[in-house]
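Changelog note: in this version the structure field was regenerated for every chain. One regenerated record is shown below for reference.
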Amino acid sequence: MAITVNLYYTGKDGAARRFAQEMTDTGVVARIRAEAGNLRYQYFFPMEDPETVLLIDSWADQKALDVHHASPMMAEIAALRDKYDLHMKVERYLTDDAGLPPQDAGFIRQ
């Protein structure tokens, strides 16, 4: 069962976007994506809130996420969050292995 964590980073004066850009430019994002068990690490920008960045972060299981959280990379991420004075809201989801129910399939355009 995969774990997906939505992290909403919020700051002021474009700080959240600069954080995401620095995470990408310095290679931290590429290193996270290369970690065993990482399924997705991708930033999005909510249209209604220019001061927030959404990170969708997915892992194969809790063990992979725990290894990531114990890595030295977390200190780098925390330092960047502090640098940009970001605050976070977190949502955590577990993958439903049953897949898409047939009654929902009619709403999906492939």
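Spot check on this record: The two ends are 25 Å apart (CA to CA). The longest strand covers residues 3-10.
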